[in-house]
Amino acid sequence: MKVVVLGANGQLGRDAVAAFGSQGGAVTGLTHEQVEVASLDAVRSALDPIHPDLVVNTAAFHHVEKCEVDPARAFAVNAAGARNVAQVSDALHASLIHISTDYVFDGLKGAPYQEDDQAMPLNVYGNTKLSGEYFVRSLNPRHYVVRVSAIYGENPCRAKGGLNFVELMLKLANERPELRVVDDEFVTPTPTIQIARQLVELGQSSHYGLYHATAEGACSWFEFASAIFELTGTKVRLERARPGEFPAKVPRPKYSVLENKALKDRSLNVFTHWQDGLSRYLANRQKLATLIPN
Fold this sequence. Notes:
This protein is of the alpha/beta class. The chain has a domain of 200 residues: Rossmann fold (3-Layer(aba) Sandwich). Helix content is 41%, strand content 16%. It is built from ten helices and twelve strands. Strands 2-1-3-4-5-10 form a six-stranded parallel beta sheet, sandwiched between helices. Strands 6-9 form a two-stranded parallel sheet. A two-stranded parallel sheet has the order 7-12. The longest helix is centred in the N-terminal third of the chain and has 21 residues. It is globular, with a radius of gyration of 19 Å.
């Protein structure tokens, strides 16, 4: 199977390239610099010569604050870009895995969101990603729309200065005697390596449709930080932030936990509990640290 991964230099994109490559197929990773998904001609020029069997679109404009101040750019990448990829992949009779987000929900449900729950985005980013979902679902019948949440991985996060939440917490703990983290926003931290494995499982199936793809369980950001410090033996005073202490620049869902119902219904779910994923990430992080000389 010939696979193309768009956004191949991103946090998830790199793991997706590695995961599909481990299956022995021909995998082509195209970076943000190599193909601009907001341009239909650029997408066509990139994909036509390869003629892939499967396209994995991880490319996105996902800096939430920047999306809010530049909605036109956000729509061009997240919505029109998804439309371009869907059109070209369909013309090539290729299947399409399109990555979306938990931010399509408003967070008011207070219980894990399933795929058939009504989407109600609170911000520009969520609205443009939801628009991209609709374009994909309407233009390429061989689609897998995959919503993820609170992702982190070994590869740098371009939109967050190269630091995911785990690395940011460890960096700040090394710099400050006390950290304050919000305890009223709930997510499911999910390693990109597990998402990539899930994408392989989906791409090898014919079960097209809409999927939630996150680790099991849920926690607040405070609880996530607490687990990071406990597992690494980091000594820092961790406190719960006071209500309103860190006012959000952009409205965000307070509760964006997803339930992988569609994956489980099809016996495709590969995810473990978020604490297991964190333990594995930190163990591998420590292993890499011992292999790299100071």
